[in-house]
Amino acid sequence: MTLIHDCSVESDLLAGMRLARRAIGSGELVVIPTDTVYGVAADAFSPAAVQRLLDAKGRERTSPPPVLVPGIPTLDALASEVPDAVRALVAEFWPGGLTVILRAQPSLQWDLGETRGTVALRMPDQRIALELLSETGPLAVSSANLSGMPSATTAQDAADMLGDRVAVYLDGGAAGTAYDAIGERPGDTSSTIVDATGLGPDGTGALRIVRAGVISRERIAAVVGEEALTPEGAPEAAPGDSGVAPEASAPAADDASAERTDPGAP
Predict the structure, then answer these.
(1) Is 172 among the domain residues?
(2) DSSP symbols for 228-261
(3) Count of structural domains, the chain
(4) Is residue 150 in some structural domain?
(5) pTM for this structure?
(6) Distance (Å, rounded) from C-alpha 155 to C-alpha 138?
(7) Which of 2, 100, 153, 165 is the one with CA 20 to 30 A from 208?
(8) 204-224 pLDDT per residue, tens
(9) Each residue of 127-162: pLDDT tens digit?
(10) Which residue ranges does the record annotate as region Disordered (predicted)?
(11) Beta strands 4-6; 67-68: pairing state
(12) What is the domain range of residue 17?
């Protein structure tokens, strides 16, 4: 029987966090709450653990998982370049429901799948997730569901789909409630994904919204300017875990970031 740790109970929270840290260190999977949807997490620096995550969801290596980070300083450790527009966006929306795709540091010793040299990063606005990240470091995290199924908004939803493929389930209550409370959720519970790999070092190029989510295009444009985004009429990937590589409906800024985005990113 799948054991779900109720993190609203202090003793269960402590036990669950201890087991979650141990599971991550052993290359196993953990389901965690985030501020958007529930995610299934693995050690980002363990190729075997990342493959276990993909297998658990029924995903291919062409849909690599994004990476959740404990803070903004991690950007420079994981990305080779962080354009000023991205720094402005993360200053405004992190922690929160914004995922950014950047060029990965070439020296990183990891294998997230067929990333084509990119990495998708997000800092979640959720206490349990941030506490775990502060102790484990960056985690590869995809939405806690089977590919093609709706994203899990409760730990029980995740357990019903993933079962014993996950070692530890942490129940932090209904996911995404922070966005409900302040009216930011535009009809979806997933993060908004912005591809910044089309920006050149001289500031030329544009950001592309490859998935609409909890942060609207209007709020992004308010920070970087509408001129910094690809035209509004350009196709954008549909929200949710469709199981379809996003480039099928929304071409990436260039070939290097094609197939990079996990449509089920939390």
Answers:
(1) yes
(2) GB--TTS--BPSS--SS-GGGTS--SSGGGTT--
(3) 1
(4) yes
(5) 0.85
(6) 21
(7) 153
(8) 889 999 998 999 999 999 999
(9) 999 999 999 999 999 999 999 999 899 999 999 999
(10) 226-266
(11) unpaired
(12) 4-257
